[in-house]
Amino acid sequence: VVGIENVKDADLIIEAVFETMAIKKDVFGKLDQFAKPGAVLATNTSYLDVNQIAAMTKRPQDVLGMHFFSPANVMKLCEIVRGEKTAPDALMTAVAVAKRIAKVPVVVGVCDGFVGNRMLAARGKQAEKFLFEGALPQQVDAVLTKFGMPMGPFAMGDLAGLDIGWRSRQDRGIKSEIADAICEAGRFGQKTGKGYYKYEAGSRSPLPDPEIEKLIEETTAKLGLKRRQIDDQEILERLMYPMINEGARILEEKIAARPSDIDVVWLYGYGWPIYRGGPMFYADQVGLKTIAERLSFYAKQTNDPSLEPTPLLKRLADEGKTFASLAKG
Fold first, then answer.
1. In this structure, what are the phi and psi dihedrals at residue 317, rounded to the nearest 5 degrees?
2. The CATH number of the domain covering residues in 4-108
3. Are 265 and 80 in contact (CB under 8 A)?
4. By the 8 A CB rule, do 43 and 68 touch?
5. Distances 131 to 158, 163, 167, 215, 225 between C-alpha atoms, Å
6. Cα-based distances in Å from 193 to 54, 153, 155, 190, 201
7. Which among 94, 98, 1 is positioned nearest to 39, based on CA atoms?
8. 101-153 pLDDT, tens per residue?
9. 67 is a catalytic site residue
10. Which CATH code is given to the segment(s) 232-327?
């Protein structure tokens, strides 16, 4: 049945339109007109402010996020995003429905990117920096696949489509010289046969491309940047530790209730290797003192104050405690 007016008998409505706030607001304004009283109105947004979306209705208590991870027929995770006015019964309905359809629900708060994508952005920022400093996509990705992840950030970008991020950067007035140059060359990833890698006809296997190496070197030369050799240990630490730091910030802000919730998000939404237990569990294994010290070191080395350990991480490190100790009160 086509037409938004036909939602009138539904108990739960899940919106999955394009990831643009104006479109989401328009849809929710219409849903408010046609949905029956008490129906749960869910948005599948992966980044946007659920409170702003809820404000388009006269029933913000019935509005929440149900962020299904892509591809939704494979990935088990569903982030249930609790808005500031979401009612407990709406939240319980969303959690129950997610379980009924064999998903793993994790309740999270409202912020840009929620839990998973917010931490992924911290990793992505470092991955991009490596290209400017001296690494190539295949080196960065190999470090992560060796760690146990199904793919690295650049192969993942090619799979998702590089034009999506490019369009988003243009909307926000943000520049990323290497990524922009790749898109300007018509390289959007697997769908065009070329992105950070090249792909042979009918194959999804990424192959290193000398053209990309040349493009990266030319772009950094134009910017007057001196490239250097970067070892795999530095790549691993700078990809993982800022993500863990962001996880600590998420706990500070009470976006996630407990460290294990963050681990569940990464295990079921991003293919984190099960034997490593999730990023916060992994942090406890490495030692929070080590992670805090290395973050401070990289903050100074790369002139990036955002890498300094968060107050929570610093406090736990100083006290010789773990993230797991937070669950014990």
1. -65, -45
2. 3.40.50.720
3. no
4. no
5. 16, 19, 21, 11, 11
6. 40, 17, 12, 5, 7
7. 94
8. 999 999 999 999 999 999 999 999 999 999 999 999 999 999 999 999 999 99
9. yes
10. 1.10.1040.10
Cα(143)–Cα(129) distance, rounded to whole angstroms?
15
Q: Kindly report the length of the chain.
A: 329
Considering the domain delimited by 135-142+149-222, tell me its CATH architecture: Orthogonal Bundle (1.10)
Q: Where are the domains of the chain?
A: 4-108, 135-142+149-222, 232-327
pLDDT at residue 309 tops 70: yes
User: Which of 59, 67, 82, 294 is the catalytic position?
Assistant: 67
User: Residue 296 — very low, low, confident or very high, per pLDDT cuts 50/70/90?
Assistant: very high
What is the band of 71 on the pLDDT scale with cuts at 50, 70, 90?
Answer: confident
CA-to-CA distance for 297 and 147, rounded, in angstroms?
22
**DSSP run (H or E) holding 57:** none
pLDDT at 328 over 80: no
pLDDT tens-digit series, residues 238-287: 999 999 999 999 999 999 999 999 999 999 999 999 999 999 999 999 99
Q: Is 223 helix (H, G, I), strand (E, B) or coil?
A: coil
Decide whether 135-142+149-222 matches 232-327 in CATH topology.
Answer: yes
Q: CA-based diameter of the chain, in Å?
A: 62
SS3 302: coil
Nearest in space to 62 (alpha carbons), one of 34, 93, 108, 33? 93
pLDDT classification of 164: cutoffs 50, 70, 90: confident
